[in-house]
């Protein structure tokens, strides 16, 4: 279920800042048609940090409805408060999600023992599978491979999204966890190398723009055709870079707006639309790869 290319889906918003549900439906259909293997709804790319609980839950619920069983939907349910993460997981469980993605708590910098206690408490509170998410570039706290291995002993903690971009970190983790523990890349720039080393898939920002190419790269890697996977990745590298010129999801929303998949590139404050020079740089990359005319 958690293998292949999962898009870290943006949350569309109107110019007035409300969630744009017609645009959300259009995005979900886009990913169904383009071959994404699944969706992460209201992860950090979906602006989970600035969506109130009620809105967060409703976006996940509607995403599941729009997917209509064609794609598994993983719900972002992380928080820097264990009680809030448990609450979100409890509220999201009945929506039909396939599982949860729970980020390392941010700002409060928990110790490794604190991370173990945090994620075990979340997993204890649900019957659904839980994927850990380590992104120290955003959370500051870094979950070490030994901590992942400890957490992998919990029957409902089934995998990890690793956004360190460090392939040696993947190897260190592989050496400590069970063979069926799911390892997903959360760093588009190194995702092809991650797959070549035995990773099970990606949770991708770039897949918002190029879902077919990301899915095809995963399928080529799974089939052992790493030359084809590398060729597909090479065509996406400039886009990988351009999408992170400004903090995610500023640039993906701008790209989707220019593609006509969003009516507005609106973000929740404190994020704002990209600088003009960065807009032009991203649009140039998109033209070069044939996404824009």
Automatic annotation (TrEMBL):
Annotated compartments: Cytoplasm
Enzyme Commission code(s) on record: 4.3.3.7
Reaction equations catalysed: L-aspartate 4-semialdehyde + pyruvate = (2S,4S)-4-hydroxy-2,3,4,5-tetrahydrodipicolinate + H2O + H(+)
Keywords: Amino-acid biosynthesis, Cytoplasm, Diaminopimelate biosynthesis, Lyase, Lysine biosynthesis, Schiff base
GO molecular function, one term: 4-hydroxy-tetrahydrodipicolinate synthase activity
First-tier enzyme category under EC: lyase
Entry keyword Lyase: yes
Amino acids binding pyruvate: 45, 203
Pathway: Amino-acid biosynthesis; L-lysine biosynthesis via DAP pathway; (S)-tetrahydrodipicolinate from L-aspartate: step 3/4
Primary location recorded for the protein, binned into one broad class: cytoplasm
Catalytic site positions: 133 (proton donor/acceptor), 161 (schiff-base intermediate with substrate)
Record's subunit section: Homotetramer; dimer of dimers.
Function text: Catalyzes the condensation of (S)-aspartate-beta-semialdehyde [(S)-ASA] and pyruvate to 4-hydroxy-tetrahydrodipicolinate (HTPA).
Protein name stated in the entry: 4-hydroxy-tetrahydrodipicolinate synthase
Organism, scientific name: Fluctibacter halophilus
Gene name of the record: dapA
